[in-house]
Amino acid sequence: MQQHCVCPIPGRPYLRSLPRPAQPGAELSKCYDGDLATGYHSDWNLNAIPDTVDFYFNGVNNINKIEYVPRSSGLNGVWRTVALWARKTNGPFVKVADLNWANDNTTKIVNVAANGIDTPACVRFVVSQATGNFSSCNEMIFWSSTPTVIPVDCSNPTSGLASLLDKKLTANNASVSPAANSAGEGIDKTLDNDKSTLYHSSWAGGGFRSR
User: Fold this and answer.
1) Same domain, 64 and 135
2) Are residue 44 and residue 101 in the same domain, yes or no?
3) Residues 10 and 58 in one domain
4) CB of 144 closer than 8 Å to CB of 111
5) What is the tally of structural domains in the chain?
6) What is the pTM of this model?
7) Are 80 and 103 within 8 A, CB to CB?
8) Per-residue pLDDT of the chain in tens (211 residues, 90 and over written 9)
9) In a domain, 153, yes or no
10) Residues 134 and 198 in one domain
């Protein structure tokens, strides 16, 4: 079965159980930027556990696999005991799984049973144990059996707009004084819709008065 990578909505806020900030430069957005060299890390000076992190989605039919990619070296903040929750739009959170992961740097894979997480609006990780009481994630990757289809909230009406469009107007005639250089460069050439022709004043000069 072909798998499709789906991404959380960029810029959406994430929720935490307590107002504990991330380490500057290691915000949560760093764990779904597609770059394994960056990652999320809680503030180095604070106890981050328990930590609750929400990812928001739009137009995703299902999520059937999740990959938690820990930091590539060191173990601070590696998630150990995690509860996975999900909800649909305007629906309550439902627990999907209780997860217990090894304290190492290997990628942790969650294969969601049955049809996966159906039409998720939000996927929540509640971390109750992590190494050193920090919280970290280099990348969180979500997979779906179907590609994402962003729904259209509304369509712009187009009927009646034609009457509001600007219309091209054409002058009936034009004159110039003093006379043009020649009949082939007369003022009528500005009205012929031919960009290869032009009007030109007399080469002898005298077109502008001097004081």
Assistant:
1) yes
2) yes
3) yes
4) no
5) 2
6) 0.67
7) yes
8) 567 777 776 656 555 545 578 999 999 889 988 899 999 999 999 999 999 999 998 888 889 999 999 999 999 999 999 999 999 988 999 999 999 999 999 999 999 876 678 889 999 999 999 999 999 999 999 998 877 666 555 666 666 666 666 776 767 777 877 787 787 888 887 777 888 888 788 877 655 555 5
9) no
10) no
Q: Say if CB 61 and CB 69 are below 8 A apart.
A: no
In 3D, which of 17, 83, 71, 85 has the Cα closest to residue 48? 17
Residues 128, 193, single domain; the answer is: no
Residue span of the structural domain in which 93 resides: 4-144
As a residue count, the chain comes to: 211
The token pair at 73 is: 């070296």
Residues 6+ apart with CB under 8 A from 139: 31, 32, 33, 34, 35, 36, 39, 67, 69
Domain membership of residue 162 (yes or no) is no
Structure tokens at 167: 């219309």
What pLDDT, on the 0 to 100 scale, is given for residue 204?
74
Return the pLDDT at 13.
54
Handedness of CA 138, 36, 44, 55 (dihedral sign): negative
Distance from first CA to last CA of the chain, Å, rounded?
A: 85
Give CA–CA dist 99/135, Å, rounded: 15
As a whole number of angstroms, the distance between CA 31 and CA 27 comes to 8
Measure the CA–CA gap between 81 and 126, rounded to whole angstroms. 8
Write out the two tokens for 172. Answer: 């009936």
CA distances to 20, 33, 112, 114, 137 from 67, in Å: 24, 14, 11, 17, 10
